[in-house]
Design a protein that fits this description.
Helices cover about 25% and strands about 30% of the residues. The termini are far apart. The protein has helices at about 1-15, 20-30, 40-45, 65-75, 95-100, 150-165, 190-195, 240-250, 260-270, 295-300, 305-315; strands at about 35, 50-55, 55-60, 80, 85-90, 115-120, 130-135, 140-145, 170-175, 180-185, 210-215, 215-220, 230-235, 255, 320-330, 340, 345-355, 360-370, 380-385, 385-395. It has eleven helices and 20 strands.
Amino acid sequence: YNEYKSYLRIMLSSRILPYRIVSPLVRWLSSDQLKRTPLNEFHRSQGGKMVDFAGWELPVNYSNMSHVQSHHHTRKEASIFDVSHMLQVHVHGKDRVRFMESLIVADIEGLQENTGTLSLLTTEGGGIIDDCIVHKSDAGYLNLVCNAGCAEKDLAHIMEHLSEVKDMDVGVEVLNDHSLIALQGPKAVPILQKGIRHSLSQLYFNHTTLADVHGIPCRVTRCGYTGEDGVEISVPDNKVVELVEKLLDSDGKVQLAGLAARDSLRLEAGLCLYGNDISENTTPVEAALMWTIGKRRRAAKDFPGAETIMKQFSAKPKQGQRRIGLIIEKAPARPHYPILNMDGDVIGEVTSGCPSPSTGKNIAMGYVDNKYIKNGTPLQVQVRKKVFSATKVAVPFMPTQYYMPPK
């Protein structure tokens, strides 16, 4: 089974077969069971409650802490999240920047070495295929991290485009032998520093470096999905358990955290979840993600969907819908709950929502018509058969703690 999958990957990487043929075979091979990260057995040994997430078996929480306790612990101390289900890719070759800029909206050319940014893979119609993180490494490649739920789709899109650009010197390497963990929280970097010889004081938000962590070769990137300071660490599969154990042993206040805490933390930080808050049916303008498109890319209009996106961005008055933040009184809102104006007309729907452990309020994100996007606008949300008062607010719902360079 695994040998056959490896054989298909070899065929893919050598372009023996187009990815649109290989992809259904890989999907068929993996459809009979949930995929597992190299930390799977470790999660179980630590009391992890395993659930299906995007076709992966991952811990939603652990027996020693509730969801809310784990959430608070991350905000106050530090937590380790297993995000090894994410797609990790290296893009090589002298045309690597030009190739990736033909797929995503980021100004990669303008990035300094060993820095990165959030970006978007977009369709020719302006929809969002996926959000991703791209870093420009001084080791001669671009480092790309994409969502697990979109991994197959993203890779198919990238490889199909690769097969069409015969004139470019570019190669795509999927890091199938590397795990990814996120160490998040105000104590995360001080804890990590104990295992790294050189100072992390110059590793600012979205900066990346190769480093030995407790003697294990890793890529350390200062980023995360919680709104807190922290890092994501790419580590060889055969060393990830050892690394997690050493991080847990290095400070008694480090705890494991699961999907439940990760979701409420990211929502408080106003971060999108693909499939809920963004999709191929939403544009960067509608998703309030135009900041991901650099000035040079906007001016050149040379990214997929540029004509649609820039036309929508420049339109006056603004048309369509926009992603907003909401605080709802008395009842938590869930995805697809209708958002109403004060006349009771449906003007949009909730895409993410939960009771916020940090603020004690019911928070949500959703899409509404553009004329309702002013902060403080009174709205309503229908929760089952009842209607509750809501207010449009700015996101994030609480201040982020990213470690930024001095101004």
